[in-house]
């Protein structure tokens, strides 16, 4: 006999709660640290935007912008929306990634070699 | 002199009152975050299928809530927190898509799910019997994958309503849409999940009665 929607939801919620209760100590510790970091925000005065984008990051963004606009051959799916992509690429962590493109590229090569081996 | 002392006393009282209020606010926020953080982590983890990324997203949401909305009433915190978190999850997916495109320029397309080891990320036993733990883990894993594969809005509606237990109004606020849309997304999510689990796992406890 099939379960009702209500029964389905109850079971889903129960299993979800069990998985929450079983989170390991290391994860709980990281959550605690995250919470303390958030609470420290209450003590901080309003911040001014003072971070400067590194020149290397800008150069990397320019390079990738050209790559995206040109829509290189071999990329799956529809062509990207360049403006939306640029918003993401100009984000702080994306710039960090772009600055380390050579490293990621090397990682890819190593993974491919591992796959072959 | 007496006037000066009075001004100083009023000033000190005002400072003390402000300090007490700030302390109370901090304690309230601490309690709120401690209460919500573990469920939020699992919800984010189901959304991105990566615990480390989910931890980062939860921390970002906590910091943004504290920085921008701590002055709001406590009743508003839950939908605001989940709105921030869901926006973070959506941004994460957009960034992944762009990164995949960038990385593909170097010859290889990355698949965000390929690196996720559900077994490695599985929680500790928590004192349950091994067979019970295994049964729960398998059921949750099946459900987790099915929820992850839902369209984003359906996934958000299902997790906020079922896992977090938000009502329709709070879910609508968290998702930034109408209550009618929440009902539609949620209904479709439940229908889709049941169909998926029934199709792929006909003996699953989510499908057949009397398995527990």
General description of the model:
- The complex is a heterodimer of chains A (117) and B (212).
- Chain A is mainly α and 117 residues long.
- Chain A has helices at residues 5-21, 25-40, 55-70, 82-89, 92-99, 101-116.
- Chain A has two domains: 5-43, no CATH class; 55-116, no CATH class.
- Chain A is 69% helix and 0% strand.
- The longest helix of chain A has 17 residues, at 5-21.
- The mean pLDDT of chain A is 70.
- Chain B has 212 residues and is mainly α.
- Chain B folds into two domains: 1-91; 129-212, Winged helix-like DNA-binding domain superfamily/Winged helix DNA-binding domain (Arc Repressor Mutant, subunit A), CATH 1.10.10.
- Chain B has helices spanning 2-48, 51-69, 74-104, 130-148, 152-163, 168-175, 179-200.
- At the A-B interface, helix 1, helix 2, helix 3, helix 4 and helix 5 of A face helix 1, helix 2, helix 3, helix 4 and helix 7 of B.
Question: Could you give a quick summary of the protein structure above?
Answer:
The complex is a heterodimer of chains A (117) and B (212). Chain A is mainly α and 117 residues long.
Features:
heterodimer, A: 117 residues, mainly alpha, B: 212 residues, 2 domains, 75% helix, globular
Task: List low-pLDDT spans of chain A.
Answer: none
* Residues in β-strands, percent of chain B: under 5%
- The parts of chain B where pLDDT drops under 50 for at least 5 residues are none
Tell me the number of helical segments of chain B per DSSP (H or I, 4 or more residues long).
Answer: 7
Q: How many structurally independent domains of chain B? A: 2
Strand content of chain A: under 5%
Helix % of chain A is: 55-70%
Largest interface: A-B, 55 and 59 residues
Task: Provide the gyration radius of chain A in Å.
Answer: 23 Å
Mean pLDDT of chain A: 70
Class by alpha and beta content of chain B: mainly alpha
Largest sheet of chain B: none
The SSE string of chain A, one letter per element, is HHHHHH
> What gap, in angstroms, lies between the N and C termini of chain B?
79 Å
Quaternary structure type: heterodimer
Number of helices of chain A: 6
| Number of separate strands of chain A | 0
